[in-house]
Amino acid sequence: MTGRPLTIALRTYPYTSAIKSGEIKVDGAELDFIDVNPHIGAFRRMVRDLEFDLCELAPTTYMIARAHGVPIIALPIFFVRRFHHQGLVTRPESHIGGPKDLEGKRVGVRAYSVTTGVWKRGLLQNEYGVDIDKVTWVVDDEEHVDAMTLPRNVVHVPEGQSLASMIGDGGIDAGCTGDAGVGRAGAPGKDWNANAPVLPDNLTELFPDHARLDRDVFAKNGVYPIHGCLAIKEEHIRNNPDLGQAIFDAFSAAKAPYLDALKAGTATGKQAQKDLKLMQIVDDPIPYGLENNRASIEALIKYGCQQGLIPRSYAAEDMFLPLNA
């Protein structure tokens, strides 16, 4: 490749390590990897300032940015996958016996556009008939894309409080767990997870039988929620139309040995443990390609429209380069 290397902000996964080490190269390009800690900080630097040539982005953040004219486009490469019946906890004092009981309640999510929250609201609305406009969504962080307008039923936590403190004192009735809500302290920054908040021990999952429900819903609609997509400045695709395929092929090659190890039972580590559980439902826990992910992409676009995050519906090809394995 002539000219400067392409800067890329990307977390390290077992299926990206061979690219980050240089063992697998992108044909016709040189990648200059930049680590951002926590990586969520890279989201804002990309969609607000176009700081990187390529960046791993939350897919909802990416779709909102593209819909608002940020000149980036994503490749159908998804680094994180998970189902979403698990991870929405309730206070027993709020008397939430099922999804519809969330109507009229206050539910915490780090930011309205956080992808986990979008998937959970989509699940609640489309599978369980919850009127998400009758839920007050309480947030304690800013949105990545400045231009987006929040619905009227989104409110910020009072000064000096957090989602974690509010689920403890009853300020909210339910909340997303982990980084998407009550499981961390403060906005993303250095060591933001170093001191995880102590939560009440009587919180209960809204869907106790989440594993079975994940299997049932996937069998019905084929939606396997996407997280962590790879976005690139559009100018690079215009200037080099073959670049997208070259990047896709390199990431596919880096994934292949890891997938083989999972199937052989020789893969180890936390990521492998997660992926082996997912393989009880799906064949490939990290599928790449537009067609392999069409149902999931179209579902997230649909949910984005329903929730007022993007102004209209889009074809999958409007949001992702039409690359396939």
UniProtKB/TrEMBL annotation:
Keyword Glycosyltransferase listed: no
User: Enzyme class, one word?
Assistant: lyase
Molecular function (GO) terms for this protein are: 4,5-dihydroxyphthalate decarboxylase activity
Gene3D superfamilies associated with the record? Periplasmic binding protein-like II
UniProt keyword annotations, A-Z: Lyase
- The Enzyme Commission number assigned here is 4.1.1.55
The record, for Pfam families, names: NMT1
User: Is Lyase found in the keyword set?
Assistant: yes
Give the domain of life. Answer: Bacteria
| SsuA/THI5-like domain ranges (all copies) | 57-140
| Coiled-coil annotated residue ranges, if any | none
The protein here is known as 4,5-dihydroxyphthalate decarboxylase
